[in-house]
Design a protein that fits this description.
two-stranded antiparallel ribbon; two-stranded antiparallel sheet; 4 strands; 61% helix; globular; glycoprotein; PRF/CT; Cardiotrophin-like cytokine factor 1
Length: 232
């Protein structure tokens, strides 16, 4: 304020009154839209990053595991037909346009179911591998994949979607350890493992696209401010 001889001048009172009126009529301060929306954006970004990490991790693991299985599984041009038993592994093969036209809830539910099932099969492989180092790598990958399942569940929860029911039995007899597979030909068991890795690779590739698309729909936390101003 301006002071003249210890008293407030008339002009200063006018300025003061103007400032008070201006402050009184300012819009309400912007606030966060909701904690859930901020949490959704963070969960989606985390899930996308984890999916890309698993893609990279699987490339190394798959190469090592196929070398462990030996020829013809480790040959670059080996592409056998999908066998009946392998149909129990959730297939990532679907029409691209059909998949894109699903709503977010349906795609998230399909991802959640698939990885829950794939994790079960992968753990069965872990229990049958003879090489300690490969078992360690499989165990580490299983832990990361379990983290992806939890992360997808977190995304669904933050968006208000219920978790889907499981795909029937998650413990098929041929995936329950050496004792349960003893009646099957060793080559057929290797075929099961081959298809598991192939399907897992395709699921991760497509999931990365799903979460990249989804994170563009839900803005980052910094952009989640919504004006709730008077008159807007």
């Amino acid at each position: 304020m301006l002071y003249v001889s210890g008293e407030i001048s008339g002009d200063s009172w006018g300025i003061f009154a103007f400032l008070c009126a201006a402050l009184w009529n300012l819009p309400t301060i912007p606030a966060l839209n909701s904690t859930d929306e901020v949490g959704a954006g963070q969960s989606i970004q985390k899930t996308y990053d984890l999916t890309r990490y698993l893609e990279h991790q699987l490339r190394t693991l798959a190469g090592t595991y196929l070398n462990y299985l030996g020829p013809p599984f480790n040959e670059p041009d080996f592409n056998p037909p999908r066998m009946t038993r392998a149909e129990m592994v959730p297939s990532a093969t679907v029409d691209f346009e059909l998949w894109r036209n699903l709503n977010d809830n349906a795609r998230l539910a399909a991802n959640y179911r698939a990885y829950t099932h794939l994790l079960c099969y992968l753990r069965s492989m872990d229990g049958q591998v003879a090489k300690a180092e490969l078992r360690k790598n499989l165990g580490h990958f299983c832990t990361s994949l379990q983290g992806l399942v939890v992360s997808i569940a977190s995304v669904m929860s933050s968006l208000g979607y219920p978790l889907p029911s499981p795909l029937g039995s998650a413990n098929p007899t041929w995936a329950q350890g050496p004792g349960a597979t003893s009646t099957h030909n060793d080559f057929l068991k290797k075929m099961d493992d081959f298809w598991l890795l192939k399907e897992l690779q395709t699921w991760l590739w497509r999931s990365a696209k799903d979460f990249n698309r989804l994170k563009k729909k839900v803005p980052p936390a910094a952009l989640m401010l919504r004006l709730e101003a008077r008159g807007f």
